[in-house]
Amino acid sequence: LSSFSFDSVMGALTKLMHSAVARSTRAASSAAIQNDMQRFRSPVMSTEKAMFARYGGRSTVTVLAGDGIGPEMLKHVTKIFQFANVPVDLEEVPLSSHPTAEEDLDQALTSIRRNGVALKGNIETKFDDPTFVSRNMALRRELDLYANVLHCHTIPTIPSRHKDIDMVVIRENTEGEYSGLEHQTVEGVVESLKVTTAENIERICRFAFNYAMKYGRKKVTAVHKANIQKLGDGLFLQMAGEMAKEYSAVEFDSMIVDNASMQLVKRPQQFDIMLMPNLYGNIISNIACGLVGGPGLVSGMNFGDNYAVFETGTRNTGSSLAGKDAANPTSFIRASVDMLRYLGYSVHADIISDSLFRVLVGDRLHTPDIGGTSKTSQMVDALFRHMEVEIKKQM
Amino acid sequence: MLTRNAALLSRGIRQASSDVRRVTLIPGDGIGPEISSSVVKIFEAAKAPIDWDPVDVTPVKGKDGKMRIPPKCIELMHQNKVGLKGPLATPIGKGHRSLNLAVRLEFDLYANVRPCRSLAGHKTLYDNVDVVTIRENTEGEYSGIEHEVSKGVMQSIKLITEKASRNIANYAFEYARSQGRKMVTAVHKANIMRMSDGLFLRMCREEAAKYPDIKFKEAYLDTVCLNMVQDPSQYDVLVMPNLYGDILSDLCAGLVGGLGVTPSGNIGKDAAVFESVHGTAPDIAGQDKANPTALLLSSVMMLRYMKLNEHARKIENACFEAISEGNCKTGDLGGNGTCTSFTNDIIARIQNSD
Predict the structure, then answer these.
(1) Which stretches make up the Isopropylmalate dehydrogenase-like domain (chain B) (predicted)?
(2) pLDDT for B208-242, tens place per residue?
(3) Most B-contacting residue of A192, A197, A255, A262 (CB-CB within 10 A), to test interface
């Protein structure tokens, strides 16, 4: 069948029921758009040691709804998985900011250790309560999820001041400023310890360079403040530089974090992989997400040697949007897609990812956070329509 | 009557001599001397009542063998209490303490203030930026307290004290009030560093209660970064500990065009040093290509600090106009002019406005 007659058959059939889908399908078939759609799929690096719970051909994953928009996002993902017949069972475990006992966290950890994989909403940290520990942080540390990875790239039709961004933020996820070790030396004098270990630096650097090699990335930029924190960041910079010599195919350079922030808002296209310790990672990843269009678009992956947890990139609870059918489901849906890819279900992952791309780029259904007027449910309904087309293609 | 006249006269003379303020000028290295000279000329044209005391801050060896700022420089600063500083080259060598750090410690310049405003005529991807970052300048992550606990395990200490946090919070609200700003946002990460940033936040909240006319908000550092690059107009004055301030102030500078157009002030209880925060640009030094805007706007901040608001306004307006309408601006501003032509343009505008 020539593409023309295919289109006309498609057009005739779907015009009756899915005219919008047909238009966007045609619109999305140009080469540049194909490239963008491919980029939207985002690669996910599975570690060799990872163990998944797989019984009877189905995987089980832990699901933590969290606070704010987490629960409603999870409902959408559940429906999407059902629609696409994804062979994944979702084991919901309660863990939110409600002051329930320590057992909640233990239960969540046991479940994730058993399943190997989790999809997570963000849990609010009530920092005014001195006994309350950040549960997000506790999870990361207990599961030793040492690498946080965000793929921040330009998506066509999303309003943004910058174009052609395609970078990966790789951030150390367990130590540094997030050690949670603080004390009051005397009244009114507080010390907070930033701990940096050679062991963790080694792991995160190797992760970054391996990622670069596997996905054909050209450059790794180490972001640091070694001029001021000579020991902590100095060690990081030194080790990253040493390791770079082992990966001669990858270009390596470094940049001080304040300059990196400035460079990001002036010319973000210069960056490829950005590698850094915990706190700077927090800053840089949020800047990068803001540059490509906001917190609703980017997903975040957390990897350890044995476990992986998938969530939104900027880890917001979105409490102001909860229950209003207004939140952008993209980052959450992409997180679930990342998870499917990690588990090896790339066909299902592609179906969902490509359909979501068509909703955003072809149909241009944008929620208010990216300048549109669509509701979450409208986007999800459109997603189903595209998925139906994609699934039929697979048959 | 004679004694009364004499008394009036002596008061008059004292007034006249105290009308002219002396300011320590550190021209700096690289393009420093050129841009400092621009500022001096512009001040002259604006008839600003400032007399300059230029000093050379090349470190000398002290009695203990350590390299430090020449004592004469310190004396002058104590005397004048106000300084204007150009860019300094980072000296390479052991035993030398960073000059910036030395000055900051000597005069307890606890507040670093950086107003970032979009310049008409210097277009960036962001319009309508008008934020001021106020950064605690003495402690926090820059305490320099680090050690190797055991092999391969490094520990850096971030120090937050009630006193310093209270001081900076108070400064932020005072600044907001005196400059007619509407809102102060405390930037923190108390969800992660609950004791240290929690203490900082508490001090901000306490100070906020004393200034009911100023709106007070709290925001996570990452949220501010996320929002700032999407819509900077939602922020006004930001107050934060040292490291966050360092990064955010550079981020904001990037929004309006970089360090070449951003002023900066370091304020203490009794003294203040205003400076340009860009580099020495040795590759263009001596070629009349340098852009004096950053140093000039810093000197305008200085004038406002000294309550010479009329002169500040005159110079600032001339500078903005020269960037917005003029054709004499330097290359980095998109013009074909030189440092001299740009300076002369500003001078002409000042003289015409009289």
Answers:
(1) 22-346
(2) 999 999 999 999 999 999 999 999 999 999 999 99
(3) A192
